[in-house]
Amino acid sequence: MSEPLKNTLLFVVVGALIVLTGFTQSWNAAILIINMGLISAIMSIGVNLQWGFAGLFNVGVMGFVALGGLAVVLVSTPPTPGAWSGGGYGVILSLLLGAATVVAAVMVAQKMPKGRTQTFAIIGILVVGFFVYRAIFDPNVASIEAIDPAVAGNIGGLNLPVLFAWPAGGLLAAGAAWLIGKTALGLRSDYLAIATLGIAEIIIAVMKNEDWLARGVKNVYGIPRPAPVVGYEVELQQDPSFLARAEWFGLDPVTASTLSVKLGYSLLFLIVLLVLLWMAQMALKSPWGRMMRAIRDNEVAAEAMGKDVTRRHLQIFVLGSAICGIAGAMMTTLDGQLTPGTYNPLRFTFLVWVMVIVGGSGNNFGAVLGAFLIWFLWVQVEPMGLWLMNLITSGMPDGSALKAHLIESAAHMRLFTMGLILLIVLRFSPRGLIPEK
Amino acid sequence: MDFLNALVALSNFVLVPAIAYGSQLALGALGVTLIYGILRFSNFAHGDTMAFGAMIAVMVTWALQAAGVSLGPLPTALLALPFAILGCIVLVLVTDRLVYRFYREQKAKPVILVIVSMGVMFIMNGLVRFIIGPDDQRFSDGARFLIKARDFKAWSGLSEGLAIRTSQVITVVVAVIAVAALFWFLNKTRTGKSMRAYSDNEDLALLSGINPERVVMITWIIVAALATTAGVLYGLDKSFKPFVYFQLLLPIFASAIVGGLGNPLGAIAGGFIIAFSEVTITYAWKKVLTYLAPENLEPSGLVQFLSTDYKFAVSFAILLIVLLFKPTGLFKGKVI
């Protein structure tokens, strides 16, 4: 079987699985799988850029995804009345002072001659800077959080259309990635992994605790939709022309409106995915992509050829993280809410890694295929596990403790299955379903 | 100014909890560092290995409690510990046989092994959730306190109380025994020496007739014992919750790296450094400072540098500082 034929077939199989979901379960479920599959595919492209192209081991995907979500709140929600005059500027000022403190300490570390005076200067700057920062930060935060805490208590956003938030999410993630990359990329691969794992946890901790920013664990609801394309169910159900079209398809108005909204999202996500896929594909084929792979395969040789390895690594780390940020912003838009408590590294970091490895690291189409396949399994393993458990326990007497436990535990089959798939692929087809050319 | 009361408050809220937490981290970090020294990869599944071992201990404890067996004032979990260690040894040896050995024979790159350990992490996490569920489980019994705050106040006549929990004392005692046994094994026995030789220079060790598979097997056995002990002690001290063990991965790795990956002594030092920094930076110092400061100069705020939710940030910050200034860790570790 020729290479393109095999790859097309793989995509057809995954597509058929999703269509089958539509026929056996519901079309809403199928389109939801497609929507999250599209978002996962974008995350996979980002991770594939870092791992497949450059061999960078980033296990902080969750942090960048969460930053994308934060950008949605900061860009698209309306500003809280009185928050800016009440303390917003003070918070910004204190954050700038905090940043200035760190920059000053780094400058002293680099410029001053080494010795005891330098150490004392650094510690002095940091301690004084910290107390000044807290002195300005704390009262301003308190005044923002005091504004109507049941529904607001945060500084709100810029009230811009939500589509602007997607590139903003990318930018926010890119900024964070630049900071991390600047400090951690000179280190060896294992250290980068631990550093990114830590930074992701810290980003989530900040988003959970800084209520003034995006209400923390109180969550932000009612994020506006990209209205012209997506629309709202209630409005659609009252639109006569929409009702006529729904009748023509033979659907009742409620199902038709929910499907229409989801398909609107699918359309937007598909456009973003295609643009990013095209860009990633062009990058892979370009001299820049060849240089990246050369660095990945032999850093020493590439350095001897005059390539600036650390700078190239920083570049691709920032790009890949930005893509994860865009995907995160899209996901928060799809959910319509930001819930920092639900970010879990197993789901948002390691699952994306499974997607990339199973699909084929180094191959963009592989990453996309892996994303759809693994997301489909992630959603469907639970009902499958329940079915399997019901089958296994069908012979047991009703009311037995073991039977109840097994059926209740079926929900946890997911993680087990994902690990099994990852290990099997790594063992028997280490280059993935669609290997790198 | 009341120096004694300040000292007691400091011990009660900072020193005692930090020593117990540091011992738990040190045991965890020893496991990570041994795997790194002998098998040469960062084992992401370590947190979940701890969870698995602790889970067996929880279940054996329940069985013993149901059978009416107890250790009096000591927690029954100590009796369950050997069984848990055995169970965990079986698990890691089976994992090694089925998963890791293949890549060892292939001489796969370390980063591939890290990704493989990610898969193992998923499976172990799934297993633990499947068997015992994702919720909190309590399994500590016996006397809760060795020294009660009220008794201490009555005995010393101070206004500050000092409470020492049984689990904290047990943690420290067990950790000291485990570490002493480990160092005796590594430094005095033939097998331990062959392990250190293998870690130092693989080729030379092979030339001198050391059997690598045996070294690897013994490493896994020791790691399983350490991980289970750490997991059970942590569970006794706080409570058993599978996801928390996964989250311990970060401070454990931070301890191992700060001390110098591959260096057992460094892992212990790193564990205590991380624990003490986490506790001191997230503790509200108002009480201690109120005793120390002169009249009318007492602090008005809580004097808490960071809220406790940011304890990950502390271990991470220390990790970064050490990596930037001393990439091999405080005690010379390996660099691959």
Observed structural traits:
heterodimer; A: 437 residues; mainly alpha; 2 domains; 19 helices; 77% helix; B: 336 residues; ABC transporter involved in vitamin B12 uptake, BtuC; 13 helices; 1% strand; globular; ABC_transp_permease (chain B); cell inner membrane (chain B); transmembrane (chain B); amino-acid transport (chain B)
Strand fraction of chain B equals under 5%
* Sheet having the most strands of chain A: none
What's the CATH class of chain B, please? Mainly Alpha
Helix content of chain B: over 70%
Query: Which outline of chain A best applies?
Result: globular
- How many distinct domains of chain B? 1
Q: Compute the number of helices of chain B.
A: 13
**Percent of residues in β-strands of chain A:** under 5%
The radius of gyration of chain B is: 21 Å
CATH architecture label name of chain B: Orthogonal Bundle
Task: Summarize, please.
The complex is a heterodimer of chains A (437) and B (336). Chain A is an all-alpha fold and 437 residues long.
